[in-house]
Amino acid sequence: xxxxxxxxxxxxxxxxxxxxxxxxxxxxxxxxxxxxxxxxxxxxxxxxxxxxxxxxxxxxxxxxxxxxxxxxxxxxxxxxxxxxxxxxxxxxxxxxxxxxxxxxxxxxxxxxxxxxxxxxxxxxxxxxxxxxxxxxxxxxxxxxxxxxxxxxxxxxxxxxxxxxxxxxxxxxxxxxxxxxxxxxxxxxxxxxxxxxxxxxxxxxxxxxxxxxxxxxxxxxxxxxxxxxxxxxxxxxxxxxxxxxxxxxxxxxxxxxxxxxxxxxxxxxxxxxxxxxxxxxxxxxxxxxxxxxxxxxxxxxxxxxxxxxxxxxxxxxxxxxxxxxxxxxxxxxxxxxxxxxxxxxxxxxxxxxxxxxxxxxxxxxxxxxxxxxxxxxxxxxxxxxxxxxxxxxxxxxxxxxxxxx
Length: 404
Ligand code: AMP
Known about the structure:
The chain is an alpha/beta fold. It has 15 helices and 15 strands. A seven-stranded parallel β-sheet has the order 3-4-2-5-6-1-7. A six-stranded parallel β-sheet has the order 8-13-12-9-11-10, with helices on both faces. Helix 12 links the parallel strand 10 and strand 11 (305-309). Helix 2 packs parallel to helix 3 and helix 3 (66-77) packs across helix 4. Bound molecules: adenosine monophosphate (AMP). Residues 6-9, 11, 13, 36, 39-40, 43, 62-68, 317 line the site of adenosine monophosphate (AMP). Adenosine monophosphate is lined by residues 6-9, 11, 13, 36, 39-40, 43, 62-68, 317.
């Protein structure tokens, strides 16, 4: 079986077939090369209307199979040698590379050529790729806009546009570039938007730039998978780092640690390396090559632990992880659920640990309300759990209560 650089992870599929959805025998054969036998729910809902040219809003998360949901209709409908007809905008370099890898496999039989334009790497090879007259461009908005400004590429013949992870592109501040790029595209085109949430700016963008879109919602309700053990470590802010080290020592197995700040990721990396752990990190100061190596290291088992800042980690397709650690409460409920979805896939069991300080109690309550369970309070070896102190208006201590 050919897998190439397309990541292979366990996904839930339907009992339909790809031929049922209207895909050609040629494309179905490419899918067999990848070992894809049945479509996932998002693929099953999106592919047929997309093949008919309809605009689609897909409410789906990373890991749902959405790359194929837009990649298959694109590979089916676009032919080689007619200029840039397909455009995919993504929030991160990693997602862009994954989409390119996927299109390279699907379009191999009819020589579909995809150029990848991402920031943080040299312009030269990208200009060469553009000079080869690609059929599809997959890009992060900033770098694409740079190329457009320099006259390296024209987008006036694009027939199919994909906005992948719309809400994450918004979080990353790409909206102004996206709007400018949209102004350059022909009005007559198909637009597919994928997003895990629809914040108002993305909703407005859809209303302004899409034609009667079909809305497909396959988001899980805010219930996280069975088989996941949740643990909350509520500690004093000054104990958060100690708690992290204690958890890493306590539990073996592959571990993915999400951190908000680069400085914490760098600190944890140095500390864990000093203690001879097999560890890698990804954040915005790491080069593209270093990020790819870190991810590959985790996939191959060369590294047991991967440290990732929230933004660098978005959308990355990580193989099954035994232990997820949130160093700090995730910003949104979706993020908590999404991260938890990277463990306990299929029948596997996994642990999601969250290390939080009392300052984050409000955010924790929101998560607990949304997932419909309170996160079990746990204690890490050698770290005192947080003790709540209630005071009167005059500042007199009323009582001390353990948050357990
Ligand atoms: P995505 O959400 O597009 O990043 O896909 C998540 C993972 O599911 C990737 O590892 C894909 O290779 C895999 N995948 C997507 N569609 C299928 C399918 N129909 N059958 C098996 N694996 C799939």
